[in-house]
Amino acid sequence: MMLADGDEAIADLAVLRDQGEVFGPVAFTPTARRLLAAVDETVLDRLRPARASARETARLQAAEYGGGIPAVRAGGRELPGLVPLLCFLANTAEALTGQLRPGNA
To answer: 46 and 95 share a domain?
Structure first.
C-alpha cells in the first residue's frame, strides 16, 4: 500500500500505521526492510502476472457494473467506487500488491 500511495521511503510506512482502522496492522520498519532486501528479479517476475490479473478483474467488474463498482466498507466507512486495487495470493491470503487511483492517498 505504501508504494501504491506514492511513498518513496520506508519511513513513510508511518502514514499507513497511523490509519490502522483503514489499513489494519502495518509492518514495522525493520520488517519492511528485511522483506524488501529479499525481493529480487525472480520475485518480481512472479508478482507481475498476479498484479496484471487483479487489474484486469477490476476493469471487467467496472465494465459489468456500468462503469462503477459497488461501494465497499472499510474502517466503518463506505468507500464508493474502486478505491484500493489490491492483489492477494488466494491460497495464503498474503497481500501481493496494491495501487490507489490518482488523488486517493
So the answer is: yes
Residues 29 and 1 in one domain: yes
The values of phi and psi at residue 98, to 5°, are -155, 150
What residues contact 6, with CB distance under 8 A and at least 6 apart? 100, 105
23-74 pLDDT, tens digit per residue, is 788 888 888 888 888 888 898 888 888 878 877 887 787 777 676 666 667 7
Strands 84-89 and 77-79: unpaired
Phi-psi region of 28 (alpha: psi -120 to 50; beta: other; left: phi over 0): beta
By three-state DSSP, how is residue 26 classified?
coil
Q: How many domains does the chain have?
A: 2
DSSP 34-69: HHHHH--HHHHHHHHHHHHHHHHHHHHHHHHTTS--
Task: Note down the domain range covering 2.
Answer: 1-38
pTM (predicted TM-score): 0.40
